[in-house]
Description:
The chain is an alpha/beta fold. 26% of the residues lie in helices and 20% in strands. Helix 1 (14-25) crosses helix 4 (127-136).
Amino acid sequence: MSTPPILRVDPRDRAQLDRIATHLEEGGLLGYPTETVYGFGAEVTSRGIRAVRKLKGRGEAKPFLVLVPDRGSEGTARLDWTPSALALSDAVWPGPLTLVLRDPGASYPNGVRSAEGGVAVRVSSDPFVTAFMRRWRRPLLSTSANRAGDPPAGSAGAVRRLSRGGGADRLWIVDGGPRPEGEPSTIVDCTGPVPRLLREGALPLSRLLEVERELVH
């Protein structure tokens, strides 16, 4: 059984980012830092969704979120941006806020698009993710790096330790240093006329209420 390599990536090194992009396009998986916790990533395809499910040990009922470069990028502009979603993204992105938006044209596959027709999206402020998403220029499948039900990994070494088997032979891990807080992103559902807090995480409720007083929590 192979041990996933840990990479030290300079976000300014285009050749390294190109190599990681090719790895994903060829069906590879990625463990990487965000400003909250470490995540698992893959190309947004049925193959990528199956591979991350296997690596994470997650069933099919719960969809994955996607990281995007910005609000106007491919796959993001096709979502339904309510006034609340626009206000929250303007105020907080890039940052630890995930927004659930309607996908009226079913532009995302099942496993990202929920049974109710929503897609969870986020723009991360981590230096590696920011640089890579500028290179990638499309959605990246994303979920916290952990086995289902366990706490998220806070370091590259922790990602490697939990990634034994289950597709780990296709995993590359980017070392961005430790993430001591260990709190995932805050999630707000913006599929309806009034935004609704689904999970309070690294972004506190008080910050959300500064932007959207009508938020249901």
